[in-house]
From TrEMBL:
Entry protein name: Syntenin-1
Any one GO CC term of the record: plasma membrane
UniProt domain PDZ: residue ranges: 175-254, 259-334
Organism ancestry: Eukaryota, Metazoa, Ecdysozoa, Arthropoda, Chelicerata
Annotated Low complexity bias: 81-91
SMART domains: PDZ
């Protein structure tokens, strides 16, 4: 039985809502509870999202510097005492305005490490601008209120990465309108997985490639017909019989896939090894380890460029030539193997669209 608790954070006005699997006394004393989230009143506090751990640490460090500078520049104004004493209420025994000049940035610089040396990263030039403009100093006696708007991605290091933008996986739905080429083909092949229909091949220079279909997309409808439970042959026949001038598909964006942004170290490596496209090892204390890259996952894209079917040395060359950070798209190996079990790798390598997608 789950017991619902609301615990006040010490020294804060925010509530921490938890679910307890034991009775109240045992739960509180053993701290055996699961955090559900932070609330202010009845409104959840929206926390920032980051594409990588390095982005999060650099953002937190920059905000700490700005907060320390603002605190030094604007000391808190203490309320006047209402109790009887030797001092009048209009003349408190302590200063209520700054008695010295604000601390300069040069003096604060020694309090925190230099950002371009943090975690061995070579930070881009725009990061220096971010450091000074990430937070607008608040005016005196103002209070920061957590935003209740939808959370946006904060990326002080990765914000200018074109690969991050190309590799975005939304899991959302979109409608795609295709036509057939001169040979009567649309340029895709599908596979049935768990009663769903998934794209396993998008051929280069075909209507499917030009429409932006990608490996792992799930087809939900074709010409207003739901295809859940259809076999691979059923879908291929349906496409073959469709009007060559207009084929409408409703597609879910790659539900089995996720992206991870990693940063190269001083040697230009990202911290994981792979064989036949499957990740087999993670380097300790690397960016891959810090950001949650897992073994037994297949590499599908590097900075949005499809690498399915490529030889390992070709994929390695793409990673090596890419600027840091690098965003990889991965899928659990057991799902990948099930999708590709009846498809020859040589055919995939020869026909798959490996071009760099447009933004």
């Amino acid at each position: 039985m789950l017991t619902y608790l609301k615990l006040k954070e010490l020294g804060q006005s925010n509530e921490k809502r938890v679910f307890c699997t034991q009775d109240f006394d045992k739960c509180v004393h053993s701290r055996n509870f699961i955090t559900f989230g932070y609330y202010k009143g009845n409104q959840p506090i929206k926390m920032s999202l980051y594409p990588s751990l390095e982005d999060m640490k650099v953002d937190q460090m920059a905000r700490a510097q700005v907060a320390h500078a603002a605190q030094a520049a604007y000391p808190p104004a203490y309320p006047s005492s209402g109790h009887s004493s030797g001092y009048s209420a209009s003349a408190p025994p302590y200063p209520t305005t700054p008695t010295s000049k604000p601390v300069s940035d040069d003096k604060l610089a020694s309090l925190y490490p230099v950002l371009d040396e943090y975690m061995g990263l070579q930070l881009p030039q725009h990061m220096q601008q971010y450091q000074s403009t990430a937070v607008v100093p608040a005016s005196q006696n103002t209070v920061a209120v957590p935003s209740t708007k939808p959370t946006t991605m904060v990326a002080p290091i990765s914000g200018n990465s074109v690969g991050l933008a190309r590799a975005q996986v939304t899991h959302g739905l979109r409608e795609v309108i295709l036509c057939k080429d001169g040979n009567g083909r649309v340029g895709l092949r599908v596979q049935a997985v768990n009663k769903g229909v998934f794209i396993i091949l998008v051929q280069k220079n075909t209507p499917a490639a030009m429409a932006g279909l990608r490996f792992g997309d799930q087809i939900l409808m074709i010409n207003d017909v739901a295809v859940a439970g259809f076999s691979m042959d059923d879908v291929h026949k349906m496409i073959k019989k469709a009007d060559p001038n207009r084929i409408t598909m409703v597609v879910r964006d790659r539900p089995f896939e996720r992206t991870i942004t990693v940063h190269k170290d001083s040697a230009g490596t990202v911290g994981f090894g792979f064989k036949n496209g499957k990740i087999i090892n993670i380097v300790k204390d690397s960016s891959a380890a810090r950001n949650g890259v897992l073994i037994d996952h297949n590499l599908l894209e590097v900075n949005g460029q499809n690498v399915v079917g490529l030889k390992d040395k070709e994929t390695s060359a793409i990673i090596r030539e890419a600027a840091s950070p690098v965003t990889v798209t991965i899928m659990p190996a057991f799902v990948y193997d099930h999708m590709m079990k009846n498809t020859a790798s040589s055919f995939i390598k020869k026909t798959m669209d490996h071009s760099i997608p447009d933004l």
